[in-house]
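Please fill in the sequence for the structure shown.

STRUCTURE ENCODING:
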């Protein structure tokens, strides 16, 4: 799927900051509200056709996504 370069840059930046972010969080429960806020900001900027791609990149239940790779 083709997505705007700006959107992909935001998704890549979110993925890149995860290792540092998770290392700094005191408890995993603190991570999720912060992550959800940032994810919502990105999703709010998505066109309808981009939203599925963005969610797939962020979805922590999929072992192939950057978020899940950082958590396991």
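FILLED IN BY: designer on duty
SEQUENCE:
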């Amino acid at each position: 799927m083709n997505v705007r370069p700006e959107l992909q840059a935001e998704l890549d930046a979110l993925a890149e900051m995860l290792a540092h972010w998770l290392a700094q969080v005191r408890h995993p429960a603190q991570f999720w509200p912060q992550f959800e806020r940032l994810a919502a900001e990105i999703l709010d900027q998505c066109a309808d056709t981009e939203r599925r791609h963005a969610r797939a990149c962020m979805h922590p239940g999929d072992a192939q996504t950057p978020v899940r790779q950082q958590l396991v």
